[in-house]
Each structure stands twice: as C-alpha cells, then as structure tokens.
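> forwarded from #structure-qc
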C-alpha cells in the first residue's frame, strides 16, 4: 500500500511539474513569432479540444504566435456562425473569429454551393466569407448541370480548387458509433437511419420481447439551442427533436438505397426545360391540431424561408434556387408548381425535403418574432385550433408534448393519426409511443444512464469509439458506420493574414500577391495537423484523414487522386517563408528543458485525452 501511495505521489509531482514546463515546452526557441492568431474551440467536446491542443502546439513550434480559447456555442454563433452584420469579417481581437474548430453533419449530394458560394455570406452558411470567382463559377455549374457525368467532373474541379485554397482546413471524416439498449431496441435501423436520415424514430424497431413503449435518447448537446424549426436552426441537436414533428415533400428512404421517396408529395416530375417542377401532394393529411395540409402550407413555408425579415440560414440558398415566392404556383389544393430560374440538379433531394410548416398557425406571427415564439422555443404555451400547444405543430409522426428546462428534456408523443401510421405498423415499426430527448453532456454520465436504464439510446456525437469496452450486454450494444461527417478548422477569409493576406510581408511588399501569401499561410497550417495520429490516438482509429468539406469519401464525385496534407513541420516553415516570414536564424544548442519539455507536456495531453472523448457534431454546423 505504501509503495502504491509513493507511485501516486511521484506521478502527482510529475504532473504538477509538467504544468510549469508547459510555457517552456511551447516556446519557439530563440525565434520571434511571425504573426498572431486565435484558435476558437467549442466547449462541449473534449476530443476536439484535445486535437486543438496538438495543432496549437505545432503552430507555436512553426513560429506562429497563437492563442487557444474555449467558448460556448452561443458565443461562437455570435462571433462566427451567425454574427450580427457589424461583426461579420472581424478578427477575434475585434469581436469576430480567426480560425474555428467545428464539425459538420453533411448531406449526401456533392453540392458546395450553400457553404461556399459568395451569395451565401451571413446570414447564409458561408461563415468563412470566401469570395472567389472560380469557386462561384464551379458552384454555379454544379448547381445547374443535370448531366451526371459532367456535373461530377465539376465537383472534382471544385474539390481541387478547395484543396489548394483551403477556406476550411479539413481534419477528418468521421466513423460513428450509436449505443443502445438491445433489450429495448433492434440494431439495424441505426445502421441505415443516421444523419442525414435522422432521427426517424418512427422507423426504429422495438425488441419483440420488450413491453417498453417509451424510448429515451440522450445527446451531448442541448435542445432547443437555436429552435424547433428547420428554417431557423442549423443544430443537429435541435433536429434530433423536431425531426419527428414535421414532414417534407420528399425524404431519403435510408442510407443503404439513398433513394428519394414520397412523403407529403406522392409524386413529382420536371419538364423538358429542367426548370419547371410539378409536385403532387398527398390528400387527407392533417397537422397535429387536426387542420388539413394543403398546397397553401407548401407555398407559405418556402415563402417564409426566403423572407429577409426571417433571415433564415437557408434563405439565401433557397432564393438562389427558387428565385422568389412568385415562382411558386398553387395549381390546386394538392398540386404545386415551381418555376426555377435555372435548372437545379438536386431539387428533389435538397429542396423538396424542407419541413412543411402550418400556415394557419404561423401566418399571423411576424417573421421577426418566430425565433422567440413558443412554437420555436418550447417554452410557454399558445392556442391553435382551439387547443393549447407547447411547441411546434407539424404533420410528422410525433407531436411535441413539452420541454423541461430544468432537466433539458423534450417530450414527444406518437401521433396515431399520422398519414403513414398503418403502413409502419404493418412493417412492425412505430411502436414507440413516447419519444424523449434528454441532454446529458458527458459520455461517462451517459453510459451510466444507459446502464441503469434511465436512457435507451446514446447519440453518435458522444464519440464512444474509445469507450466501447465499457458497454456490456445485456444492457448495452452498439452499431458502427461510416458517417457523412466532417471535422475542420474553418478560416476567416477576411482576416488580413489568413484570408486576404494584406498584412503578410509578401502582401505588404507586393499587394498583387497578397492572396497568394495568405494561401501559403493556410497551406502551412494544414501541414501542421497530424491527421492520422489524431485519428489513431484520440479517436481509436475511428475516422479517415480529410481532404475537403463538404465533398467526402462517401460523396459522389470525390477525387481519389487528392491526398490529405501531410504532417510536415519543415514544409510548413517553407510555406511561411514563401509568404515572407523569414527563415529561422542559427541558434545555440537547446538545454534539456527546451529539448524535452514538449514531451512532458504531451504526456499531460495524453492523460487528459484518456479521461474522456465526447464527439460533437451539428447538423451542417457543429
């Protein structure tokens, strides 16, 4: 016992000593730093924080004066993802951001338009503020080209451009794990119904031997965060709740077939001009309050999405595709026509799945009040069709029963009058009567809740890849799948060094080469990321080194000739030198602490990483 106590004491002393070595470990020996930049890291993800530490250390070693700050999502949205117009483009020191570690849960279609086209600057989703003529041209060509072969060549051309320009520095593509209670649920639905076909709880299958009809899902992010409407929220965690409240006109059958199948639309067709789409709506569908769904609700939803007063993150994208509400014609109660200004290759898979809102509930509420209304927040109550409601109303398989802000719990109840209920019952599905979504931030607490039976499903974003040894039968099992997920380091492309390059030495010397200099800086930083080591050590080999966002290894058109940027400190320094940051002068031999302090610090990082790995991805943004 005494021997063990001595070991603990020695280890504690070493850890305390290593804390004092950290400043020395991360000092660039005898070299003035080149420029200052701040890395922003979300507060909810220890795994992301761990690899941000590694990148931070490597940037210091390369001569960059770098800070690393951990912020909550509200602050990150205000500074980077959804900032007020007076903050757009500002550096971190001026209230904006420089570089942001963030994750995306991507769609299936290889369409970079919504994230990168210059028309999609905030409040659109181009938070990078990338304005590049060649990028815009290729995004436009991908959007309008209906011939698959030609369009996918444009996708590869775009990926080559993004790979060189690096408006976002892609770290990795994700391989995810969902854990669940096998005494309550069957495994297969989780293998084929993850994001972007998520959550689809109506298609989960109860274990035939269970009498349980309430399923509780735990997730590592809060809901509601941005809200309970597709038009105002980009949060994956919000989607996990509201995704069962609404229906789109079409939906993805699953992630095996990838086929688009009818939902609120029974069929759709496009004319020979590739621009005129006719959509035939399902009759006899009712919203949760009993009011019938019609073409009026379809036009109302798309009109709201494009309204400047609502400032939907999808609004500018929809305006580029549809043009304006005038291009939507109600032919009759069950037929709608869309007259697109130009063809859009992904109209049925990208535009028609938009969740349809109830016109009779929302038409009297000004757009600028939608975000704060109970319909979106789940707090308070309101009356619709003579009934009291506590959140959103849709046509989906579950109606929203309420939100408990004390326990961060959303409760939803099966809608037995759902238009597809009988078909689902015939297939042995839709047996879950109560669907509950609860926020449990830490993975250890979530695993304990699964073990004790408090919850039945642990969402993929817990990043349980490194903790599967603690999941045991009979209370726990898991499925693994390659996901449409990306982790990246997003760049403020208006930053004077990282983006425009006007404050780089090369840019100062020759303003015509400022953008070139900034590109060298971004490429240098990409070479400072040990992608495979991060995957192997932090994610237990669950993942693939990344090349670009949003085109991934699972995406049609992915360019297999592109290799992830190698981890190469000397190459990074050479690229910085091309940007005008001088070569390191000859220095005297390092002493022991300068030479080996970094390894002591690395030991601290390894211990921290071993404590817990929570993986946080947001729908499109995370």
């Amino acid at each position: 016992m005494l021997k063990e106590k001595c070991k603990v004491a020695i280890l504690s002393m070493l850890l305390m000593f290593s804390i004092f070595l950290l400043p020395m470990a991360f000092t660039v020996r005898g070299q003035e730093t080149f420029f200052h930049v701040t890395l922003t890291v979300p507060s909810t993800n220890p795994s992301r924080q761990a690899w941000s530490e590694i990148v931070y250390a490597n940037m210091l070693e390369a001569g960059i004066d770098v800070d690393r700050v951990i912020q909550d999502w509200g602050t990150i949205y205000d500074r980077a993802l959804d900032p007020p117009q007076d903050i757009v483009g500002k550096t971190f020191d001026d209230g904006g951001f420089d570089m942001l570690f963030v994750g995306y849960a991507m769609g299936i279609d290889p369409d970079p338009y919504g994230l990168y086209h210059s028309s999609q600057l905030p409040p659109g989703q181009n938070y990078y503020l990338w304005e590049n003529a060649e990028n815009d041209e290729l995004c436009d060509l991908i959007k309008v080209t209906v011939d698959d072969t030609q369009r996918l060549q444009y996708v590869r051309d775009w990926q080559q451009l993004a790979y060189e320009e690096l408006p976002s520095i892609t770290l990795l593509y994700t391989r995810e794990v969902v854990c669940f209670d096998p005494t309550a649920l069957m495994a297969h639905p989780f293998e084929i119904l993850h994001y972007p076909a998520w959550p689809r709880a109506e298609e989960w299958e109860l274990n035939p031997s269970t009498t349980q009809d309430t399923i509780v899902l735990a997730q590592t992010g809060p809901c509601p965060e941005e809200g309970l409407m597709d038009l105002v929220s980009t949060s994956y965690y919000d989607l996990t709740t509201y995704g069962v409240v609404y229906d789109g006109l079409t939906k993805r059958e699953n992630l095996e077939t990838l086929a688009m199948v009818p939902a609120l639309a029974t069929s759709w067709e496009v004319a020979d001009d590739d621009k005129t789409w006719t959509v035939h709506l399902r009759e006899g569908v009712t919203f949760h309050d009993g009011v019938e769904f019609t073409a009026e609700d379809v036009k109302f939803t798309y009109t709201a999405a494009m309204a400047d007063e609502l400032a939907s993150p999808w609004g500018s994208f929809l305006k580029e595709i549809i043009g304006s509400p005038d291009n939507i014609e109600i032919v009759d109660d069950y037929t709608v026509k869309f007259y697109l200004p130009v063809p859009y290759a992904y109209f049925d898979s990208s535009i028609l799945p938009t969740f349809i809102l109830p016109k009779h509930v929302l038409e009297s509420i000004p757009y600028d009040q939608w975000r704060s209304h109970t319909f979106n927040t789940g707090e308070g109550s309101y009356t619709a069709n003579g009934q009291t409601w506590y959140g959103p109303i849709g046509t989906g398989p579950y109606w929203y029963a309420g939100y408990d802000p004390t326990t961060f719990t959303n409760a939803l109840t099966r809608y037995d009058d759902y238009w597809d209920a009988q078909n689902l019952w015939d297939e042995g599905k839709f047996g879950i009567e109560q669907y509950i979504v609860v926020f449990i931030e830490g993975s250890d607490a979530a695993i304990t809740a699964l073990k004790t039976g408090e919850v039945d499903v642990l969402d993929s974003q817990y990043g349980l890849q490194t903790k599967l040894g603690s999941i045991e039968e009979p209370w726990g099992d898991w499925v693994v799948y390659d996901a449409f997920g990306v982790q990246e380091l997003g760049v403020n492309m208006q930053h004077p060094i990282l983006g425009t390059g006007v404050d780089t030495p090369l840019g100062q010397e020759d303003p015509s080469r400022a953008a070139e200099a900034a590109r060298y800086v971004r490429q240098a930083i990409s070479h400072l990321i040990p992608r495979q080591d991060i995957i192997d050590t932090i994610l237990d080999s669950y993942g693939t080194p990344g090349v670009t966002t949003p085109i991934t290894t699972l995406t049609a058109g992915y360019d297999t000739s592109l290799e992830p940027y190698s981890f190469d400190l000397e190459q990074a320094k050479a690229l910085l030198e091309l940007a005008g940051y001088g070569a390191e002068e000859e220095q005297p031999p390092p002493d022991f602490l300068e030479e080996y302090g970094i390894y002591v610090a690395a030991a601290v990082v390894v211990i921290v990483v071993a404590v817990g790995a929570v993986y946080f991805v947001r729908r499109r943004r995370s």
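QC bot note: Residues 2-25 form the longest helix (24 residues). Residues 1-30, 584-622 have pLDDT under 50 and may be disordered.
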